[in-house]
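agent> Task received from the user: take the single chain below, predict its 3D structure, and emit structure tokens. No templates, no multimer pairing.
agent> Plan: (1) validate residues, (2) run structure prediction, (3) serialize to tokens, (4) report one or two observations.
agent> Step 1 OK, no nonstandard residues flagged.
tool_call: predict_structure(input=
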Amino acid sequence: MAKGATAMVDTVTRTPQRGLIPIIVPIDFANLQSHPSSKLGQADKYERKALAASIKKNGIRVGDQLVLRRVNGVWTIGDGNNRKTCGDDAGHAWTNADFLEFVGTDAEFEEFVRDRNTRRHETPEERERRTRELVKLHMHWPLRKLADMARVSHTKIAQIKKEIEDEGKEKVADSKRYDALVKAWDAAEFEDQAKFAKTYRVDIEDMFGEV
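)
tool_result: status=success, residues=211
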């Protein structure tokens, strides 16, 4: 029985850990680079200011550790670029406790990063904005691929894509109307231009003041 138990323990010990694990080796905190899978979800200047203030006051909380991934032996930030930048701005003294390592396949890691970026306390407005940015960047990608990346339905992607396309058409139509107006004005005789200006003087003054 003891021999069997030992064999079982050996088997478990040799099984590679997967998912998030603590980091016990030294890390060059000042020279961490971004992993290619972590480009979405960059904070704006107001969000960065608030995050820096939070880190300065509370540090990096348990559950909010930055997640690293080794690429050819080099540590990269897979989740937490905003926290790293804001922590640096706040003068945070980094330690290994502020980080975890993701162990798994590249596909598992990319899925993990997408999930973290899209589920971290987003308001509906933030999710809408992020999804629109993603669709604008990749208008020709399949709907279901975009939906999988954004964690929304493919019908939502189709709706946003149509809105973006319609906005583009409206801009083109506005430009054509303006060009037609300029062309008509340039082609008109001075008397007609004066008559037009007199007819619409009140409207022009309302828009630009006295002319």
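agent> Step 4: summary for the user.
The CA atoms of residues 201 and 207 lie 10 Å apart.
agent> Done.
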